[in-house]
Give the backbone structure.
Amino acid sequence: MRVLVVEDEPDLRRLLEQALREESYAVDVAADGKTGLYKATTWDYDAVILDLMLPGMSGWDVLSRLRATKKDVPVLILTARDNLADRVRGLDTGADDYIVKPFLMSELSARVRAVLRRIRPGLAEDRVRAGDIVIDRSAHRVKRAGRDVHLGPTEFRLLDYFMQHPGRVFSREQLLNAVWGSDVYVETR
């Protein structure tokens, strides 16, 4: 699963990226609203985590423009703005959830899973089966014919991506973006 984090505060952005990668999400990041909107409308994401107070373009504008072009991507607002009017505005503008800083990473992770379960049920299942292969996403384990298969984090994400899209053929660029993210340089050979 692929997540875009749009957050201008560098330490929090790195923390979110690291924590989400540890949960086997492919994570792209953006430090300002314009870059976040560009990435969100150029590539496909399973969820977007969006700050409201961003340089270049506010999170409000990013959300409004995103909803005008990609109505189905789940958006979770993550912001320090905690008054009721902002929460209502965020949800009415099209956010699927509204989380106030400070927050616990375990709660954010649970909210991401909840939004995915509701909007894209197949992506949020803990166990995925294809033939004799079973992926347990919560335990980061793979079994084939009942035997453990040891995979590294990238191999795990790649197999998970293939199992989410059975029978499809992908270009090298699509796989690089989906599994490694657009912010990472990967030698394609």
In short: DSSP finds eight helices and nine strands in the chain. The helical segments are 10-22, 33-42, 59-69, 84-93, 105-119, 121-124, 153-164, 172-180.
